[in-house]
Structure formats: C-alpha cells, structure tokens
C-alpha cells in the first residue's frame, strides 16, 4: 500500500505549487525534500513516512514544471533564481522561518544554491548524490559538449526545437522502465573512471539517454526494477499528463545560471551533509571530492550498493541517516 499525505497547494513566486506535508507542525526546523529529474515529490514517499513517524515535520513539493505544480511556458522561468525563489515562497506560505533543505539529483543543485542566495531562510543543507562545486571555469554546456560530444543528454536537451522532449513524451512507461532500476554490479577488476570536475560522470559512460529510451525494450533488461507496478503507475500517469518539458527546461538554463552566478560567493555557511551513492555512474562519490573547501561544516556519508535513485533504492538507510544527522545537529 502506497502512503502519501494529502496533496495541498501554495501560491508562490507567481505559480501554484503542489506539496505534501506530514509530521508535527510544532517541529523546527522542518525538512523540505526536493526531487530531481525525472521525478516528483512521490520519490520521497519512504522518507516522508519515516521522518514524520520520527517526529520530524517534513514537506515535499512537486517543483516547478512537475506533477501537480504549474508549468510556465517561457524557458527562462526555470532558472535557478526561480527555482530557489519557489522554495522561499513555499516557506512564506507555510509561515516557516528557516528549514533544512534536502535535494537529490537536480534538487541537489537547487538546495546547494539556497544558502548562497537565501541564507536567512536556511538552517542546513543535505545533498543526495549531487555535490556542491565552485562555479565552473567555462560555460558548463560547452564543457559537456567538449568532453562527451553532441549526444550527451544534457547537450541534446539544449535543442530549442524540443525534439528530445517528444522522445520521452511518447515513451513514458519505457522511460521509467529504463531509468528506475538498480545498476548492474561492477566487476571487481574494473578500475573506477574519474568523473569530470563539477559535472560528474565518467567519460566512457553512454549518456545518450534519448536514443537509449527510443530503442529500449524492458524484456531484454537484466537489471532489477526499483519500483513496484503500483509505484511505476504513479510516475507514468503523472508524466503522461505533465510531459517532460518542464523538467528538461531546468537543463536549458544551465548556461544562463552559470552566467548569472558570476561573482557569487559559493561558500556554504550552514551545517551540511553529503550523502553519496557507491554505484551512481552519473554522480559518483568522487564528484564530491574537495567539497570541504567550500563547506566548512560538512559531514559525508556513503551508501553502499546503491545506484542513482538512492532514496528509493536504500530508503531505510537514507531516512535513518537524515533523522540521525538532524537530531545531532538540531536537537
């Protein structure tokens, strides 16, 4: 049985945002859970249950472009200023002064930006798989293009014709069948490849995700699914309705975000936790090397035998670590 609290709505930053809330309203600071791509607040179902049962107030929004939340048309409406501004507006709506922001995948990029832009609203930050890095020395899309070529999915996502969106929109079930699986265990003898600094992923990884989805057949996939059929149906139904463009628009702002971050101090001055997943191929633990230079108050934790979808692959371990760290740091 899949449990989620009732869906609620907040008017924030010019959009209507859907969110889920559980746990005692008196608990402070509350925990805001921010999902990645292609996900929704439902990705945090296990943490919502575990944290609220442990007495923690927890809030999980469908972020801009996703699920029950509005999907504005202009691409610029998905830049990092809008995405962090949405979370500030959510705090305002709930009359919350400060929160701990927890983010996975793209949500991780957003939560690491919160203390750089809205320090007075941030009690602490937890990144899951997504490291905090300094501003790249050049436009990140150009760096990705040089390193991985034109077929790298983030480079393909820059196409103004939105041709890749159609691949995902036309194959919603295939997308979740292909993505939401545990990785094949790596052979002991395979040397780990170094990821690209500030970008993640090793150079030999096949990152042509649109083509992978277009040619995917679940019958020939030996990997173990993470989602039950009921859980998969929730993702498939949600994205069938919303499409993928809203989420992909986050990627279409990477160059804009990079340009507009010039001169921004990237030091994170709040208690922080970095949860890494041993077998994440796109955001490997080595991508978090050197974070201590930018985050004076940082704890790191490695989840073994987990791929990219850490909070869904290892829900009890992730929830347990979040509860333990929050108690230790915030009582």
From TrEMBL:
Question: What's the protein called, per UniProt?
Answer: Pimeloyl-ACP methyl ester carboxylesterase
Q: Which UniProt keywords apply?
A: Hydrolase
User: What are the top taxonomic ranks of the organism?
Assistant: Bacteria, Pseudomonadati, Pseudomonadota, Alphaproteobacteria, Hyphomicrobiales
Source taxon at top rank? Bacteria
Q: Which SUPFAM superfamilies match?
A: alpha/beta-Hydrolases (SSF53474)
**Pfam family name, one:** Abhydrolase_1
> Which molecular-function annotation in GO is an example for this chain?
hydrolase activity
Q: Domain AB hydrolase-1 spans what residues?
A: 29-315
Q: Reply yes or no: does the keyword Protein biosynthesis apply.
A: no
